[in-house]
Amino acid sequence: MLAIAQPSSPRGAARRRPVAPPRGLASQSLAARRRSRCSTVRVVVALALTFALIVLVVNAVTYLGSVLRAEHSIDVTADAAPASTVRADDRPSPSTYIVQPGDTLWTIAGAIAPHTDRRATVDRLAQRNGGPSIEAGQRLALE
Fold first, then answer.
1. Which of 15, 44, 72 is the last residue of a domain?
2. Under a CB-based contact definition with an 8 Å cutoff, are residues 79 and 87 in contact?
């Protein structure tokens, strides 16, 4: 067997300790720094897209809600039929309302007195018009 001779250090010379790699950005390779920066950009872009999506959904829900409320709102002076088919003596006065399909005393009370207690308004409407039952086309006395 052959013995391999190790170079010996001069006597008294201190042996070198292995140097630990420095910490922080300076020690990272260029590729590692790019990966870190790229992942940060991805997180920021993902957060921005999430925020934009939330704003879009909230606006869509708000718009649809306002459209649906407008479809179900009641015009107190509205006629049941177009003006061309209603004679002048058949038109409701401002103190009457012609019930439309889907109307209830509750929705009518909300339309004629939006800032008061609806229960009291419903009771007054029911008393003036012969009870709580209403039908489409019926004339309600509002005063």
1. 72
2. no
* Residue 67, pLDDT score: 67
Give the CATH number, domain containing residue 103: 3.10.350.10
- Could you tell me the residue range of the domain that residue 63 belongs to? 33-72
Q: Give the pLDDT score at 60.
A: 84
End-to-end CA distance of the chain: 122
Residues of the chain with pLDDT under 70: 1-15, 18-35, 67-94
pLDDT of residue 143: 72
Please give the DSSP secondary-structure letter assigned to residue 119. Answer: H
In angstroms, rounded to a whole number, what is the distance separating the alpha carbons of residues 26 and 48?
30
- 58 and 88 belong to one structural domain: no
Q: Which 8-state DSSP code applies to residue 140?
A: E
Residue 39 identity: S
Question: Model's pTM, two decimal places?
Answer: 0.37
Choose the final residue of a domain: 72, 97, 132. 72
